[in-house]
Amino acid sequence: MTSSAAPPLLDSQAYYFRIGRGSWRGSFGFHIVDQAALRASPLTLKERLLARGMALAHRLTGNSRIDSDVWARPDDGVAGVAGNTVRISRFGITLYLLRETYTLAENGRDIAVHAHERFGPIPFLLRNEKRHPAAIHADGMSSTYYIPLLGADWVAHYTVHPDRTHIDGVLTCDWARATETIQKLAPADE
Q1: What is the pTM of this model?
Q2: 182: closest CA among 158, 148, 162, 157?
Q3: Buried b / exposed e along 101-135 (16+ C-beta atoms within 10 A)
Q4: Region of 185 on the Ramachandran plot (φ > 0 left; ψ -120 to 50 alpha; else beta)
Q5: Is 189's pLDDT higher than 70?
């Protein structure tokens, strides 16, 4: 008698298809942690203004709301494709909008990220497209993203809680630190 059990999920498939898929909400904080490093960094004027504006908004009004909707297409590509729409807002005003597509490698670890981002509430201003790598770790319970953002190289570490319905993120660069704490609202429709 042969078993027709499905093969075990790769770490990246567990992360995006089983844990991540669905709607999430939480809080986002952004702080400049090294003013001298910010002054010395080769940011454009636009990047410098965006970074300072984001830090000022968080210092004056506290953490922002973050909403995330993760979808998955397990049968696309060699190991599947997933995506995420992230909106960071304060008082109903969009501060940052991100649409990402994740192409999973067959090794179960490496991810190719294709992102479209927008800063601020005006849809046609301050937009950017970028590609960067990410890595998913053991059993899909954590990840690391290597993100070009605001003229700096950021490293983002995400940790899934054992209940698989909470995720904590810490994003850092030479001059700033951002934090995310999100909770799953609902699983995606199958």
Answers
A1: 0.92
A2: 158
A3: bbbbbeebbebebebebbbbeeeeeeeeeeebebb
A4: alpha
A5: no
